[in-house]
Each structure stands twice: as C-alpha cells, then as structure tokens.
Amino acid sequence: RMAVARLLLGCEGVAGVRNDLVVRLAVGTSSAWRPHVVLYFPGDVQSTRDEMLRSTTGSVKYAEEYCLESTATLLSLEYPGAHVVIIKPAVYDGSFNNYGQLLTPGLGAASLQALLACASDRLHLEGTERLDTLPLVILAFSKGALLLNHIVAEFATLMTPEESMHIARSRTPATVLRAPAVRAAAESLLARSRALHWLDCHRFPTADRVTECLAATAVNIFVHGTPRQLCDQGRDWIRCEHDLFVSKLRQHHRVPCNCHPAGVGALSNTSSESPLLHERPYFMDDPPSLRKHFEVLHCFQTSCTAGLRKL
Question: For 132, which DSSP code?
Fold first, then answer.
C-alpha cells in the first residue's frame, strides 16, 4: 500500500448526495496508535492542487502547501497510523467552498457514513480496515465548521425540518430521511469519535439543546483559534459566538483543560480517559492574517485522543 493521496470521484452519500474524497491510507501499522480515521472538513480556498493552481484569485499562492493532497500528507504526520479522509465540498469557485447537499437537514451524518463506506468499497478495504467502522477524529477547519455543526445538530434534535434548519442555520430543503435513521447515523459517527476539533472556525453551535447533548458525549472537544477569527473587529460576532459555545459547554459540566500552547510548536500527544474541553489560542500577539489562519494546521495540538493510543 503506497502512502499517496488518492482522489476518489463521485462517491455516493444518500438521497443523491455525491462528493469527491481525498484519501491517504496509512502504511502498515503504528507501534503507538490504534488504527483510526482522521476526517477533515476543509475551509474556503482549499481544493485539489490542480483546481487551486487554475484559480484566478489569491488561492493559487496557497496551492502547494494547503491543497487537499498536501493537507492529507500533513495530517498523516500529525496522526501516525491514521487513514486520512478529506471531504471535498461540492462546489469550489476558485476561492469559496460550498458543501451543498451535505448541509441538507437529515443528509449530513447519514451521507458521511455512506461516503466512508463507498470509499472503503472502492479501495477494497475489508473487516476492521473499513473506514466506516474505525474510530474517528473529526477536524473542521474554518468554513468546515458548518458541516461539523450540522452533524452535531442532527445528533441533538428530533430532526423535524424546521428545528434542524433553525439550529444548524441551514437554508437547504427539508429532510428526505426519517428521523430515526438520521439520529442513528449521527449517533454512530459521534460514538466512534474520539475528538472533535473546531480549527479556527467562524461558526459554532450555540443552541442549548445542542451544547447540552454535545457536553454529555464521551468525545474530547478542542476549540482552536487565531486572531484571524477571534480578533477581527469587522466580524466581532465570531468571538462572541466562540465564547458562548465554550461557556455553554462549561455550564453543562464539560471539564475545561487549561493547558494552552504558548507559541507555534505542536505539543506532544497525551492520553486521557476523561472527556475534556480544550481551548487553544495561537499567534495571539500577531495581527490577524490569512497566512497565520492556515498555519494553525501545522501547529494545532492533537492531545487527549483517548482510546487511540495502544496500551
């Protein structure tokens, strides 16, 4: 098995959802880590290398370092022994990404499960190697938070179309799946998840029902931020929503972890049996910049991935 990122075109979700995936399988096994999947939701600017190089916007200067293929390689270094799966948004216009039907109420978690199963079939993975059965670490970078927020909302609600659209801020059509199937898919994703990372995001789930359900799970929650999002005076609502999200998780008895990285160096991984809330600021003495926004992908802390380290 070669350690290269592969582009799988037109993987099938549910109810007509189709997405391309970038997959980088682990080579062999890690002496320290159990097999798992790192599931990454990209933000704006990011796409495949070829698409970014064809862009007529400023995206082209980030193509080599932060295209989806390079990001898959970077994440494989951060998570030894992990299979990296990147969900390519349905629409990329050279700068902005649109997750399309994945944000339809009822189609998010169910489609992600189906996409992982489709990728497993195409890559001829069987048994305990299948991507739709392994433990997960979910990373949402920047706009990718829209998809992570949506999945969490599906888990927390009874999935009436009106309720889900309100909580997840979705403007797409009503669900075509039955509520039990939707919740089962979301529960399966979160039950397999060992950590959820909001990586310098601009949206957070703040509805009481969502934060209460999220706080009650056994998953470690990481909220990473840079001045690009947290100190933008033209978008001060981002910091307000960030702080409200963290505050509500604490109110619901989610234990905070107060060890903050001082600079840009990645901290070593440690294991914890108790689900924690981790706030991680980076570059806070620097002015807001898109460059530092992307650099968080190099230095975000990946600790407390409970259950993934071998005994």
Answer: T
* SS3 labels along 195-262: EEEEECCCCCCCCHHHHHHHHCCCCEEEEEECHHHHCCHHHCHHHHHHHHHHHHHHHCCCEEECCCCC
- Band (pLDDT 50/70/90 cuts) for residue 116 is very high
Phi-psi map region of 306: left, alpha, beta (phi>0 left; psi -120 to 50 alpha): beta
HSE value, Cβ hemisphere, 13 Å, CA-based, for 306: 14
Percent of the chain scoring above 70 in pLDDT: 79
How distant, in Å, are the alpha carbons of 227, 284, 301 from that of 295? 12, 13, 12
CB distance 170 to 104 below 8 Å: yes
Q: Which CA distances in Å does 138 have to 41, 118, 190, 219, 232? A: 8, 18, 9, 10, 26
Question: Is residue 18 within 8 Å of residue 118, measured between CB atoms?
Answer: no
Whole-model pTM? 0.86
Q: Could you report the per-residue pLDDT of 134-192, keeping only the tens digit for each?
A: 999 999 999 999 999 999 988 887 544 455 454 444 444 444 455 677 667 777 888 89
Radius of gyration of the chain (CA): 18
Cβ partners under 8 Å of residue 205, min gap 6: 149, 152, 153, 167, 168, 211, 214, 245
- Return phi, psi of residue 307, to 5°: 90, -5
Please, which residues bridge with residue 225 across strands? 281
Which stretch of DSSP H or E encloses residue 10?
A: strand 5-12
